[in-house]
Amino acid sequence: MSIKDILFRYATPLTTWLFLISLVSGVALFLGVGAQYFREMHEILSLFLIVPFGLHVWRNWRTLANYFRRSAMWVSTVVCLAAAGAFAYEGAGATATNPRAVVFGALNNASMTALAALAHTDEATVTGRLKAIGVEVGSAEDTVAGLAKASGHDSFELLGAALAMDAAASQPAP
What we know:
By secondary structure, the protein is mainly α. The protein folds into 3 domains: 1-59; 62-96; 101-163, no CATH class. Helices cover 73% and strands 0% of the residues. Helix 1 (3-31) packs antiparallel against helix 2 and helix 8 (123-132) packs across helix 10. The longest helix has 29 residues, at 3-31.
């Protein structure tokens, strides 16, 4: 059995199963269910779908080419491309950003005073937490971004230390 025969034998089954996985994970992502489980699966396996899809088209080229003789294929092509174009156009003009990026940007530019307020503590406690990981805070108006750059630490690490709750404070009241 040749490589071509093996590829053709598995083209349709792989296309079918990878499409179904992409379908289920895409619907779950759309509905906001289990993003931690489905996002990477959807992205990576959808890329893998390209190869068996190409093989499937190659294997069934004559049948597919016959569809282009019918108006249904052309109407479907126009409708799908128009829908894709509309989404792309809307996305190109959108100024909306990822809320996580907005929040991180705000926290990254926050002063020690602002971080203390967020952590429900005082500036001395936040400064002490940062000193504990080797970061010297010069003033209460120093920002996370400035401290990260000066200290060589990652902003996420600094935020984690600055906003960390004490173990006793994080326990629920009896």
